[in-house]
Amino acid sequence: MDIHLRLARWIRAHPRTVDACLALAIFVFLVLPFAAGGVQGVGMIVMVSAALVIALVWRRSRVILSAGIIAGISLLQLITGIEPVPAQFVILVTLYTLAAYGPRWASLGGLGLAIAGVAVGLVRYGELTGVSTSDSILTTVPLFLILLFFVESLVLLAWTMGDLARSRRLTYQALEDRTRRLEVERQQERDLAAADERSHIAREMHDIVAHSLSVIITQADGARYASAQAPELAVQTLGTIADTGRGSLREMRRLLGVLRGDESASTRPLPTLDDIDALIQSVRRSGVRVACRRVGTPRRELPLGAELTAYRVIQESLTNVLKHAGADTTTEVALDYGPRGLTITVDDDGRGAAPDPTTAGAGQGITGMTERVRLYDGTVVAGPRTGGGYRVEAFIPYTQA
Questions:
Q1: Cβ atoms of residues 56 and 90 within 8 Å
Q2: Which residue has the higher pLDDT, 377 or 354?
Q3: 68-98: string of b/e by CB count within 10 Å (b at 16+)?
Q4: pTM of the model
Q5: Which end of the chain is more exposed for a tag (fewer CB within 10 A), N or C?
Q6: Cα–Cα distance between 112 and 116 in angstroms, integer?
Q7: What pLDDT does 356 receive?
Q8: Do 180 and 283 belong to one domain?
Q9: Which own/partner pairs from 194-200 qualify as long-range (CB within 8 Å, at least 24 positions apart)?
């Protein structure tokens, strides 16, 4: 950081120290020389100068009080005839401070009072400035006007610089406030994005783990019962369990690779509607009779995200069949491409998806399906059928294609 930026930051951080140093510098250079010079009336000069300078210590912390003290002392000088002192320079500093830090009424009031006070002072102390009333009016008036213009210009310059500093300070504060608000909004966006990502990861974990474990558990139960009478069937079933476990492990590694930022792990294509047959085949190996039929042709292609959503809906529905429908269940998966979108229907004739009190997290699959489909302006309806069994019906429109 440049030295002038560090200095500006330090000045903003230590206003009282800066004001005290300014008062001390004015006292040293504009008061002490006269005190050491032994001029006539030195006591009065030092006393008035000290009062003017000390008031500068509170010029920003107590703006009105500091300006009032300096204005009162200057007014008292005009009334009593006490001659101006070099420390009267603090009037310009006070004008700058009022314009930069004081309320607007005090700033404008101080400017008007200073303009009037300068004019009265030039008349009151004309002899000191070389404007003598004994001289010709043709000589006095032009000189008075020149002095008045010069001094009033200094007053206006000090006030204008203060007003510009006020505008700059307010702009700087507005930028700081805006930066803080943007930082808060950015943090909120990060939190919302993290929450959304956690929800997405939870859905992916549920879809991968729940389906694979349901297949593994069903196959393991079948292998246990078949091992005594048909060992070759048990060996085939164990092979299916191993394949399902490996597939689930690959999916988990891909998901965790994305979380770690592993680019190579995220290049594997996500499941689409073309993978439905492989999904159904894995469920059939678990002993569930599953039929799949497709009706119509799509009017337009669904985006990959919508196809992934359709795949997850079917996967979750079949997982529920494995967990809840019971043995000897027949399931039908229908993909109907209508004029408005894709309708997915999964029907089974099992005992239904009655809640199992021993199963933790029941109902999360339906909630996950609903959230996924809702992202594509779709709907999900799930519930027991009138004649027995359970139905899941999802609709995904073409609007997002």
A1: yes
A2: 377
A3: ebbbebbeebeeeebebbebbbbbbbbbbbb
A4: 0.48
A5: N
A6: 6
A7: 44
A8: no
A9: 199/371
